Please model this.
Amino acid sequence: MTTQVPPKQRRNFLFTMLAGFGALLAAAAGWPLFRFLSPIAATGGSQVAIPRSEVVSGKAHFFDYHGKPAVVLQPAAGKFVALSAVCTHLGCVVAWKEQASEFECPCHGGRFSPEGQVLGGPPPKPLESIAVVLDGDQLKIG
Ligand code: FES
Model:
């Protein structure tokens, strides 16, 4: 023996299921957009800690800064500089040229000083600076 569900009740059930499925689809589609538009500070801790011993004078230490390449170096004893490693021309990642003590962009030959100032090539502005402080034997960046 089967029981008949009234058409109105069946319609309400189908509408509820469709609305729930639609809300789920909207959330799944909107989440990546929300993450993309969220400011960096909203993604977690703001500072990155790097042991001072890893930043050797004359060499560059590349690291991940909130999902983007960054670099810290010690151009003079006890002086630390942290920069975005993203070229300000078209966004390539710069490389450290130890012999010349400067950054060079592999894409179009842009050159930057150890402090991020433009030395040559097409980059329109310096590498973005990131705050860095020495706290004990750790460099706190950001
Ligand atoms: S992207 Fe760096 S010089 Fe063009």
In short: The radius of gyration is 26 Å. The longest helix spans residues 7-37. Residues 87, 89-90, 92, 105, 107-108, 110, 121-123 surround FE2/S2 (inorganic) cluster (CB under 6 Å).
